[in-house]
């Protein structure tokens, strides 16, 4: 699959450089002490739980970043179903390089595969509806790149990546400002003054706030926060497609279909990234 637009070579290089610096510092002494620099070997990525595999392309990138001479024979691609006992890929080259990047690759792939698997499961509940499943910013600092990528691999849709690519006026912005209309007015002036191309989303907590948002020009999406299904359906009817709608808060897997029936365009779920269980994967030596 194609990488999301935010997965640039620059972003990957920064992420990998920092992660390797954290792990290696002055060297992988266990490997340097016991493995000859000239030793060439192979290792297989073994799947130990059924899952939607994610992080294969990232693993290739990490291996090549660390040692351009490593070769990777991919057996299972990102987003494909993997079963217990499957071999996802075989990496061949310097045994030192394989060992020094092993845990970094596994940490990324186990976490990403867990997120992709959970996302695929939740997204499957929305098949046949027009509602899209979104992630949130409830991510791990310095690992958001991989977590958002995993959501996309699992079939979900990425929400804003950070604080810089969308204006989202949440409860505290509104409460500090006094009203939705005041907050939106200031946001529009800010966007215009700074010549920014940013959408504006506003969080609403009840039908009164929904009506205020409807009456306020310049809103691209209205978030319906922690509303029950009946209230949400009424809110969607009031909004009547003048802008996009997003359901958020207290979303469970069991509620997904009923929330989609209200007609919302999006459902955002923090659990996709903050509650996914890592998938058990291992890298095992293959002598050549």
TrEMBL record:
One annotated GO molecular function: nicotinate-nucleotide diphosphorylase (carboxylating) activity
Annotated binding of substrate, by residue: 103, 136-138, 160, 170, 203, 225, 248-250, 269-271
GO biological process: NAD+ biosynthetic process; quinolinate catabolic process
Pathway note: Cofactor biosynthesis; NAD(+) biosynthesis; nicotinate D-ribonucleotide from quinolinate: step 1/1
Domain (Quinolinate phosphoribosyl transferase C-terminal): residue spans on this chain: 115-284
Principal EC category: transferase
Domain of life according to the entry: Bacteria
Domain Quinolinate phosphoribosyl transferase N-terminal: 28-113
Hydrolase in keyword set: no
A GO cellular component entry from the record: cytoplasm
Keywords for this protein: Glycosyltransferase, Pyridine nucleotide biosynthesis, Transferase
EC number of the protein: 2.4.2.19
Family (UniProt): Belongs to the NadC/ModD family.
Function comment: Involved in the catabolism of quinolinic acid (QA).
Family annotation (PANTHER family): NICOTINATE-NUCLEOTIDE PYROPHOSPHORYLASE [CARBOXYLATING]
Record-given protein name: nicotinate-nucleotide diphosphorylase (carboxylating)
Organism for this UniProt entry: Elizabethkingia anophelis
